Amino acid sequence: MREVLETELQNALNTTLEMIDKVRDNLMLAGRTLLEGRGELLEGVQNADKIIDDLEHTLESDCLRIIALHQPVAVDLRLVGALLKSATDLERMGDYAVHVAVDATRLAQESPLKKYINLGSMIRNLDAMLLQLRLAVQKRDVDLVRATHKLDDEVDDLYEQVQRELVTYMIEDPRTISKSMTLLRVGRSLERFGDHIENMAERVEYWLTGERTLQN
After folding, report:
1. Which of 127, 166, 172, 201 is least surrounded, with the fewest CB atoms within 10 Å of its CB?
2. Cα(117)–Cα(182) distance, rounded to whole angstroms?
3. How far is it, in rounded angstroms, from Cα 109 to Cα 116?
4. Structure pTM?
5. For the stretch 69-86, what's the b/e string if a residue is b when 16 or more beta carbons lie within 10 angstroms of its beta carbon?
6. Distance CA 204, CA 17 (A)
């Protein structure tokens, strides 16, 4: 029975890693929609999100089956709980990638307000966070998990810079309000994307250490 449980746990882990990969790919595709002004990429982002949704359902079903059939305890139970909740976080990350692409498609129909330097930096940091978290899950490395927290702080700082810049634009020229509001939504979507990575990192850390460490 232990052998069967370990196989099913590994399958659930593999599905989680696949979800992370799909979310990373979709984040970068949404980023191209924004940074390159390529509204035609929106459909690809939406289609990829459907795949992420399907993987979420698969992972949830696998985790619930493990609980029902094997009644895991200790570290195994922490792992199943982490994966079950992380499935929801990853699905929400996929949704936020779609939100970014939808707003980016609107922005692509007009001349850009400015170069999206800080938004581009946010996207790169989020990708780095996902990569570190993937490696942490794969290698069961708590130090890699904790490294994501610093990157999330950087994402939050960049979002604050985006807000300040866009508020200044709107005050100085009311004609920029519509574009600025759309860009603020993009920034908010990316900031929330990072929050879900942070949620997942906290759960992975609990799985690995048995200790809860909540970030601000």
Report:
1. 172
2. 16
3. 16
4. 0.95
5. ebebeeebebbbbbbbeb
6. 13
